[in-house]
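Lecture 7 notes: from sequence to structure.
We start with the chain below.
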Amino acid sequence: MLAAALATILVSAPQDAAAAGGKSGGAVEITLRHRIAPIEEDDSVPLRESVLRVEVGSGLVRIRGEGPERVYDFAAGRRETYDRERGLLFSTSLLAAVSFRHREMTKILGWRDDLGIHADKMDRLSVALTEHRLGIRAASGPETVERVAGDEGVRFTWQGRDLAFVDAERLPVSAAALRDYVRYLRYEMRGHPLVMEEIAGGAGVPRLLRVFLIGAENRAIEVEVQSVHPSEDSPPAREGLQRAWPLPDRLTLAMAAAFALEPWDAEAAADALEAQAAAAFARGALLEALLRSQEAELMTGLPLPSAHRERLRAYDLDPEASEFRAALEASDAEAARAAAQHMAALRGKMPEQAHVIGVLEARLRAGIGEGQMAANLLIQALQREPRLGAAWAELGDLLAADYDLEGAWACWEAGHAASPECRWLRPFRTEEARLLRKYPEYF
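Predicted structure tokens for the same chain:
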């Protein structure tokens, strides 16, 4: 038997108040019975509860029941989790979840290309099942999902196996309410895009929805609407909650510092560091001068000034500065490993510039497969100077490579908050625009 759980969901009020038997302008409460079990019948699956609420016109989806309260704020593009017991508010970008699914789809399509036509016979590499598991449509691939309409509802199948069932009975809600309900399903349940389109194209929420995640997950999810009625529920209370991130404490401290920074003038900051570089050069501290210039570039992403280029000849004649410049240009693994060791030694000798050296060393270590060491160096640098836009960008890249997309997007956002115009963060903004354009149904 499918294990049962009771959930209450609030979505936007219908434009026609009579549709839900209440006055216009309030929220609509939908009570769900939510069941999850392996596709093979199993009574051992535990019960669970959840609550979803969406405020009229606000684009909020609010889920309460099992675990901490969760809120999808579509206007802000955020998913928030309220851990009231600990007084914490975890806020992550909706783009993180979509980015993860996009990467998974890209990976599966790549494997298919490697294996050729034989991939069509493998559940794990089926385009249709991948679309169903991730809830996003592939860029290309055969359309193998069949829609079968009947008196009771619509079935979706793949090679004769059930993927989903959408009940013909609909409970009337407004277009806005239905839109938010479908967005809830996309994030919380998944299911093939054709299934979501079927629900979105109806005249209300279906009384019953079944989704079968066949393959590795092998589970069935059933959502049955028990009732729909108006609610005057208040917005979620954020007061007294401290923003937090699901990341190591030493990194979250740097993030908090980055988001708390006042707006700054990047060109003025670069000019100030250039003045320090010129002063160090004048007193014969050539390596310090070189590092001051590097710091300006790492923080602002602005091109190094002509004065820096005029000092290059002198750097080449200075043993310390020339050795450091050679380390930056290490071209193979052996040279990069030696260069990283040289920089590690320099960090101990030059504590005032250790954060700059650490970022440059992290690049070398990431290139030779020492990702954890690189991440530690970047975190240390950001604890010292949270405006290092390049460090935020590269730490986000390392986390993304390890499939920690929530952490990656948090880093990129922190970098943008600390150094909005930094060129090192432009790929993040490009990716953001691409996902918004490619998957508008999620936002």
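Points to note: The chain has two domains: 3-243, 247-442. The CA atoms of residues 50 and 313 lie 66 Å apart.
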